[in-house]
Q: What sequence folds into this?
């Protein structure tokens, strides 16, 4: 009986060893490329098309072919491929928190190791953007694109008909919301369904928090120095719940929780509009124009900067950006990253209208329409800038922050206990 | 015959030959099962062992083991992870509790509906058409099922057929998968729709296997139709019913795809189940050790069901 187990067990052990031996390939130095670079990102659709124009230009100039892969489920795919020892050569990382996480575990190749001059590349970016690609004083990538998130999208023609002025303060915005409601219109559409769209709520919160609690508290909150059950958080949530509630949002809170962010955009700017305004980042314009080509920027679609709430805190801009970083060390990869940091690549990219370039060398005239130009100006001229806070949170906290806010808009009475629970989780994550 | 029992020098070479033979057959047997052992070992046993090992570890962003943490993952899972199990609230919530709801409702309703349709359909002329309609969803992948029901449940009555029906009769449109209190039931119902066909087909086939004479005899003896169902058909169907139940149970404990596509675990994590937590912790959050812990818990839930199934197969072999 015992002997019968011996051989299968030996076979298993041998297999375990063989499998264990796979992977683990940390070669030093930049190798010669094979003439093709694989790039992995989460951009699909119009975002993918825009990026491919940049890649085509790269191939034209260098003769290096590119192979583009995309998955909306970016993190699961990148983790499994890293584990298997088969990462893409270049990845476009959607969260700076993830840059830190990967850099800490030596999954990324620093620019210096690629034979690139990190300081020369960073010349093209202001400090805010540079920091996103930097972990412990080492630069791990180039900031590929930027977005303003402090944008409120509205219908200029509807404002005109109703005699509304673009609001500069929160009070003015609240008055517009009241007037829309008294006319029987739905002021907001919010799309915060499931895990893929819960971040729209974190965007709402961040815009309000940075304006009520100020930039310093914002930095502290998202770096673990200020607890999430702090009074400033509750104050910001109260203001947020004043808008994101059953009375002001299309189909109420339940409706918001069953709508994706893309659908919410089309419920405002599509061919069968049901709501008047939408609070979401600069890319909203591109998605709306894609869904409804008859929209006229400046007439039927436009945005205004998120209004001031407390005078003393001013109007800090909250934005986000994606970092292109290398997983494999070879010359082709180095050339691609260098190319992506040039103003020239930036100009091609912004000409598609899909993005705003954080690159200083990309001037206003490169932008194809007023909506993106306006967003670019907002990014460039911001009096102060804050990065999307939930994207900076470590580990699972970022995703769970969206889930927390879903629970808060659903059960506003439980704010205190929900925040206490989240803070307990945060303490562990930051320790 | 009697010579075999004779001890002495004759027995020894004979015994050796027997041993030779048994050694050869042992090698032969091993050769025959080697392919199966290799495949099972590679695809089932190795991952199983690795998962258990992983559940005692902490991993990095590349999902590689960096530290051993003992039972910490298990204690966190059951005592601190409110998304998995929250006993402080009443009624208890969390992925584990949601999965229990799934087990009870999905298994019982799929089975009951399957049985009902199988029994009733046997009595009508358009039986095959009816059964084909109920069976069609079985041929649809869970992803497609999720997308179909996403449209059915859409909160906008212009899109969602369920809400269109409700508003037609003067009711108020509901956000079926946007409400914490409804989302699990909405999902469970969609999955029942997709699996009732399986229960029905198996039970219907078994029903056909019951001899007409038995039923005729019962009728002659004055049994009512309910008696026939209750005292003849149901007892004779007990084996296929337990087969279907086991299949449904195993299927529901590992349910994942329909939830992933339809709600993504939302709103506010209200529709997460065990398999969803496992995926989420491992791949989205990069906590492979913690995800493996969830997987082991899921395995522990499935093992008793499998054991029951295997024991039943054994006992059948004895009786037949």
A:
């Amino acid at each position: 009986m015992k002997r019968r187990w011996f051989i299968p067990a030996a076979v298993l052990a041998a297999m375990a060893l063989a499998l264990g031996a796979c992977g683990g390939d940390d070669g030093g130095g930049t190798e010669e490329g094979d003439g093709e670079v694989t790039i992995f990102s989460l951009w699909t659709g119009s975002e993918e098309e825009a990026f491919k124009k940049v890649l085509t230009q790269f191939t034209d100039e260098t003769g290096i072919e590119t192979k583009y892969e995309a998955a909306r489920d970016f993190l699961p795919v990148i983790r499994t491929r890293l584990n298997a020892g088969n990462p893409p050569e270049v990845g476009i990382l959607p969260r700076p928190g993830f840059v830190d996480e990967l850099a800490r575990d030596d999954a990324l190749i620093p620019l210096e190791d690629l034979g690139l001059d990190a300081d020369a590349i960073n010349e093209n970016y202001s400090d805010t953007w540079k920091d996103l690609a930097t972990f412990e004083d080492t630069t791990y990538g180039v900031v590929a694109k930027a977005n303003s998130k402090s944008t409120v999208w509205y219908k200029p023609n509807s404002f005109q008909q109703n005699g509304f002025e673009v609001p500069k303060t929160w009070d003015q915005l609240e008055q517009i919301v009241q007037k829309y409601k008294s006319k029987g219109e739905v002021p907001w559409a919010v799309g915060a369904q499931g895990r893929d769209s819960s971040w729209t709520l974190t965007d709402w919160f961040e815009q309000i928090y940075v304006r009520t609690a100020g930039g310093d508290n914002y930095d502290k909150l998202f770096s673990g120095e200020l607890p999430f059950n702090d009074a400033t958080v509750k104050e910001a949530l109260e203001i947020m719940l004043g808008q994101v509630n059953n009375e002001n949002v299309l189909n109420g809170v339940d409706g918001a929780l069953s709508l994706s962010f893309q659908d919410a955009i089309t419920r405002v700017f599509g061919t069968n509009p049901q709501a008047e305004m939408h609070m979401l980042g600069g890319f909203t314009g591109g998605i709306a124009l894609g869904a409804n080509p008859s929209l006229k920027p400046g007439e039927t679609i436009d945005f205004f900067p998120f209004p001031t709430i407390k005078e003393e805190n001013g109007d800090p801009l909250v934005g986000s950006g994606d970092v292109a970083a290398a997983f494999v060390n070879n010359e082709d990869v180095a050339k691609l990253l260098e190319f992506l940091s040039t103003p020239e690549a930036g100009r091609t990219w912004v000409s598609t209208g899909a993005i705003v370039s954080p690159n200083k060398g990309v001037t206003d005239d490169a932008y194809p329409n007023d909506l993106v130009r306006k967003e670019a100006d907002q990014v460039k001229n911001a009096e102060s800038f804050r990065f999307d806070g939930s994207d900076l949170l470590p580990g699972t906290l970022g995703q769970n922050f969206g889930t927390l806010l879903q629970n808060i808009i659903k059960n506003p009475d439980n704010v205190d206990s929900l925040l206490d629970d989240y803070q307990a989780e945060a303490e562990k994550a930051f320790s | 015959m009697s010579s075999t029992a004779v001890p002495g020098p004759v027995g020894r070479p004979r015994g050796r030959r027997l041993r030779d033979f048994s050694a050869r057959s042992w090698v032969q047997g091993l050769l025959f099962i080697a392919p199966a052992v290799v495949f099972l070992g590679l695809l089932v046993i190795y991952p199983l062992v690795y998962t258990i090992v992983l559940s005692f570890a902490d991993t990095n962003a590349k999902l590689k083991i960096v530290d051993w943490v003992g039972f910490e993952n298990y204690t966190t899972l059951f005592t601190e992870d409110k998304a998995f199990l929250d006993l402080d609230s009443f009624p208890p919530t969390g992925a584990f509790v949601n999965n229990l709801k799934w087990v009870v409702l999905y298994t019982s309703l799929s089975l009951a509906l399957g049985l009902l349709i199988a029994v009733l359909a046997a009595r009508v002329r358009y039986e095959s058409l009816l059964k084909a309609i109920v069976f069609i969803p079985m041929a649809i992948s869970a992803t497609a099922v999720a997308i179909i029901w996403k449209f059915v449940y859409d909160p906008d009555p212009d899109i969602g057929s369920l809400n269109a029906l409700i508003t037609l009769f003067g009711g108020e449109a509901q956000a079926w998968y946007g409400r914490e209190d409804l989302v699990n039931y909405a999902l469970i119902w969609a999955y029942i729709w997709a699996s009732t066909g399986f229960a029905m087909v198996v039970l219907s086939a078994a029903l056909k296997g019951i001899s007409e004479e038995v039923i005729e005899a019962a009728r002659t003896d004055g049994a009512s139709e309910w008696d026939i169902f209750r005292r003849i058909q149901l007892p004779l169907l007990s084996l296929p019913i337990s087969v279907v139940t086991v299949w449904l149970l195993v299927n529901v404990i590992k349910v994942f795809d329909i939830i992933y596509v339809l709600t993504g675990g939302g709103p506010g994590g209200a529709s997460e189940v065990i398999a969803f937590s496992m995926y989420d912790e491992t791949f989205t959050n990069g906590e492979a050790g913690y995800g493996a812990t969830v997987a082991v818990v899921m395995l522990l839930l499935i093992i008793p069901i499998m054991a029951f199934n295997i024991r039943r197969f054994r006992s059948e072999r004895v009786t037949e």
